[in-house]
């Protein structure tokens, strides 16, 4: 007996649905599980712009790894997956976010904007790894540059991909020592471990390299809580300083340089992060020839490979406000991908042993991990702000019309510094 037309259609639809569901289930079963990376960063609050800049950089790096098929492992290649966790600029929120990420199976926690947060996460991760040997994770640090993190507080699970504060100060001082226009300097920074380290090392190196330079002011201010830097700028101008040395980052830097311009300060700024996040636009012509920044890479590094790399980033993120690319974050993801592939496993200790030996290159820039303290060794560059179109300034920053011309390129062997790490490694 034949079924009515309506019933036959229902049977066919039901069969097709069942077949489709079975196909989806098989595809899902065959799709390799992603290797999860957890970004724990300020994605809201006064430093949200810095967290979002980090996310764009890491996302771009992850996308490149996945575009070439992921990471080859026994059983098939696996893609990377970058998950976002908002620390809201608070250490307790960061620790809570890390616990959630670890419960979710993250292979690595990635953080950097705040050395105080990095120290808290490092302690928390060490305890977690000791208590949970089957759920261990790495801590990959791209910006937390307090020197202590790879010295007295070094850890087998922690790898730093940025030059630490003393290394960056040394690069800046390599320029300032020859700047005879500077006879008086003002030191200012954020009042936490990193800001304190910058001022301490700046004072030490000035005394050694330029004992003729007077330090006419030195102060620390609350991090992320100062809305009006005019009182600080007035003091800087009144001090007679020809240069300000600061490790300030994010809005604390942008507001500082803006206030300095508004009170008529005409001296120079020797900075860690003066090359983006609004600082060049805030200064305008007043910053030309007067803002010096140290970085692991700058868009105007004078090579064709570097230019192509930067253009590729701007193609991926065309909004001028999104223009802040970090070579070190790209190298971090490349080093992780290389280490997982060489370990032939996502077992965390095995990956860490390979990470200790990582050597990576991208767009003509190379670096390697120093096994003794897990401090990445890479070139550093120092640039000075100038108008786009000036010699050596093909690219501007954030559509501002101002970019940074490279005036010093420091090889890894010159940038490296001794360490006091006594690494404890698992058996």
TrEMBL record:
Residues 34-388 form the Leucine-binding protein domain. This is Branched-chain amino acid ABC transporter substrate-binding protein. PROSITE patterns: TAT (PS51318). It comes from Xenophilus arseniciresistens. Pfam families: Peripla_BP_6. Keywords: Signal. It comes from the Bacteria. Signal peptide: none annotated. Belongs to the leucine-binding protein family.
